[in-house]
Design brief:
The complex is a heterodimer of chains A (about 250) and B (about 325).
Chain A lengths: L5 E10 L2 E11 L4 E6 L5 H8 L7 E6 L2 E2 L4 H6 L1 E5 L10 H11 L4 H15 L14 H12 L6 E5 L7 H16 L3 E5 L3 H4 L4 E6 L2 E6 L1 H8 L4 H10 L10
Parallel strand pairs in A: 3-8, 3-9, 6-7, 7-8
Antiparallel strand pairs in A: 1-2, 1-4, 4-5, 9-10
Chain B lengths: L5 E10 L2 E11 L4 E5 L6 H8 L7 E6 L2 E2 L4 H5 L2 E4 L11 H11 L4 H12 L15 H13 L5 E4 L8 H16 L3 E6 L2 H4 L4 E6 L2 E6 L1 H6 L5 E7 L1 H10 L3 E7 L2 E6 L6 H13 L4 E8 L3 H11 L6
Parallel strand pairs in B: 3-8, 3-9, 6-7, 7-8
Antiparallel strand pairs in B: 1-2, 1-4, 4-5, 9-10, 11-13, 11-14, 12-13
Helix pairs in contact in B: 3-5, 4-5
The chains are: A alpha/beta (about 250), B alpha/beta (about 325).
Chain lengths: ~250, ~325
């Protein structure tokens, strides 16, 4: 497939006089693991809200899974998955109820939901009972399950917003193996993280500073461009250049 | 040698059926910067709530500055500054009103504590009339730290002060802690970030309500039981698969741009292990393979100890 999974052209969002996202442009290819980095307040969340069809841009354009986020936001939302550290599954529903709820929201028939969830739980090697409340699951299982549920409707692009925050180091690595597996099947993965060792696991990444894309490339290319040994140093070099990291909003 | 700031012996705490602390023992020396390191659910917050006298342990004992956390709770409260994991200030009060409130609760004033909080508070003082709820994440964190310090505590307890904070702000926050420690304050901070742990004098690794190890960061790394190698080369997924298929593999985990590998043959010399592994990888379809010995870090040891503990993470 030649059409990129995500195309952003001069995508911009203003709130009053404040420009949260300032003419960002990039493309993400199908099956790519794309890291979307930036300091707190750099504009990442606003950009993601536009790309997921939740917030209209003030200027510029973008397509996600081939659909225009301005004119076909509904189509975009059908073709993407989303999970974050803060919002993933419903704690007060069982594992099975969560899967049925998400499958139902995306219009899957009951027998299809049953078939896909069996495959999904098998691939996850999920050991807790499906009748367990999600609240009772260890955080590691919760996050891995949330990721798989976000893929249940076979989206073209999945957005992961700090999916591994607070997770232990072994589960964090298992989570990335799930990401690679999804990408190998052609799902495009758009991921944010504060763990810079995880940024190394991305095919390419962008670093946002003050609403703009300040750097974009493979991890190796970015380190070469800034002549530093680690992505941590790339990040600090870029973010330190601003007035005060994370304190941009008025 | 002065008395320890904190002594915890065999503390357990269970919520309903869920054990949060399963017999935790540790001590923190006066003037020390001590880190509690572990994932969500390890028991870090429960430990803080016991130390701040907000929770009574089911069993075991704990003292803070020589005072028992159950019998002498009122003595402890004014000696301790506590920054909880969740934003716990009054969102509808201004920055200055919050700070004044916390000072007055302890019978003091902003002015009396000003020199101690100045390095932090000066950064948010221009916004002193803004509602706390309208501050950015970084500014909320600085206000919370100011409120925890304004009554000049001897011990500062910080529950995940940098969770969800970007890498640059995290570094700046730890620079601040260095300054506070230099002024003589004892500090205990928890974090899920292993890279931050290296900035502590000593750390306790926590998992599933237990302390897996307590030592200086470098010594924790040195607890790793085998020779460790950083393996470069790609594609990464195939490299990991090849390493896991290697007959003598003990562990193979991605670490940034490399994969950390250890060999289960303890009797072999590191040089032999390195050479044989390089030969094995040479015949696989991989690019730019390099195998180099490295010193194990905190995260290597943590994962090793997790694997050994009775309830392995999901």
């Amino acid at each position: 497939m030649n059409t990129p999974a995500i195309v952003a052209r001069n995508l911009t969002r203003r709130f009053g006089t404040f420009t949260a996202v300032d003419h960002i442009s990039f493309e993400v290819q199908s099956g790519e693991v794309f890291g979307f980095l930036g300091a707190n307040g750099a504009g990442k969340t606003t950009a993601i809200r536009m790309l997921t069809g939740l917030l209209a841009p003030s200027e510029g354009e973008a397509t996600v899974a081939g659909y225009d986020i301005r004119t076909a936001a509904d189509r975009v939302r059908e073709r993407i998955g989303y999970m974050s550290q803060r919002f993933s599954l419903y704690d007060d529903l069982t594992v099975r109820e969560n899967i049925r709820l998400y499958g139902g929201i995306y219009g899957l028939q009951d027998d299809e939901i049953a078939r896909r969830s069996e495959v999904m739980l098998g691939e996850l090697e999920f050991t807790p009972p499906v009748t367990a409340m999600v609240r009772a699951l260890p955080l590691g299982w919760k996050q891995k399950l949330a990721f798989s549920v976000a893929l249940l409707h076979q989206p073209a692009v999945v957005f992961l917003d700090e999916p591994t925050g607070g997770v232990d180091p072994i589960t964090r690595r298992q989570f990335w193996e799930l990401i690679y597996r999804a990408a190998a099947k052609g799902t495009t993965v758009f991921v944010t993280t504060h763990y810079l060792d995880e940024a190394e696991y991305c095919d390419r990444l962008s670093i946002m500073v003050d609403g703009k894309v300040a750097a974009l490339g493979t991890p190796a290319a970015l380190k070469a461009e800034f002549s530093v040994a680690s992505l941590d140093d790339v990040f600090v070099t870029l973010a330190r250049g601003t007035a005060s990291s994370g304190e941009r909003s008025p | 040698m002065s008395a320890p700031a904190i002594v915890v012996q065999g503390v357990t705490k269970t919520f309903g059926e869920t054990p949060a602390l399963r017999g935790v023992s540790l001590s923190v020396a006066a003037g020390e910067l001590f880190g509690l390191v572990g994932p969500d659910g390890a028991g870090k917050s429960t430990m803080f709530r016991v130390l701040t006298t907000l929770l009574v342990p089911d069993a075991g004992s704990a003292t803070v500055m020589g005072h028992d956390v159950v019998r002498d709770l009122w003595a402890i409260r004014s000696l301790v500054g506590y920054m909880p994991g969740r934003f716990a200030l009054y969102a509808d009060l201004s920055v200055e009103e919050n700070l004044r409130f916390f000072a007055s609760v302890f019978g003091t004033s902003i002015e009396a504590g000003y020199d101690l909080i100045a390095p932090i508070y000066r950064q948010i003082e221009p916004f002193r009339d803004r509602r706390a709820g309208a501050l950015s994440g970084g500014m909320k964190q600085k206000l919370a730290l100011s409120c925890a310090l304004v009554h000049r505590p001897q011990l500062l307890l910080l529950d995940e002060p940098t969770t969800g904070v970007d890498a640059v702000s995290r570094r700046e926050f730890w620079d601040l802690l260095d300054e506070l420690r230099a002024s003589g304050l004892t500090i205990v901070a928890s974090t899920p970030y292993m890279d931050e742990a290296s900035r502590c004098d000593r750390i306790g690794l926590m998992q599933d309500g237990r302390v897996l190890a307590i030592d200086a960061p470098a010594a924790i790394g040195a607890q790793f039981p085998r020779a460790l190698f950083a393996v470069h080369g790609g594609p990464r997924a195939r490299m990991i698969a090849e390493l896991r298929r290697y007959p003598f593999v003990a562990s193979a985990y991605p670490f940034g741009e490399t994969v950390h590998f250890s060999d289960r043959r303890l009797a072999e010399s590191p040089d032999t292990i390195r050479r044989e592994l390089a030969d094995y990888l040479a015949v696989a379809d991989l690019q730019e393979v390099r195998v180099a010995p490295i010193a194990p870090g905190i995260e290597d040891t943590f994962m090793e100890l997790m694997g050994e503990s009775p309830s392995v993470a999901a």
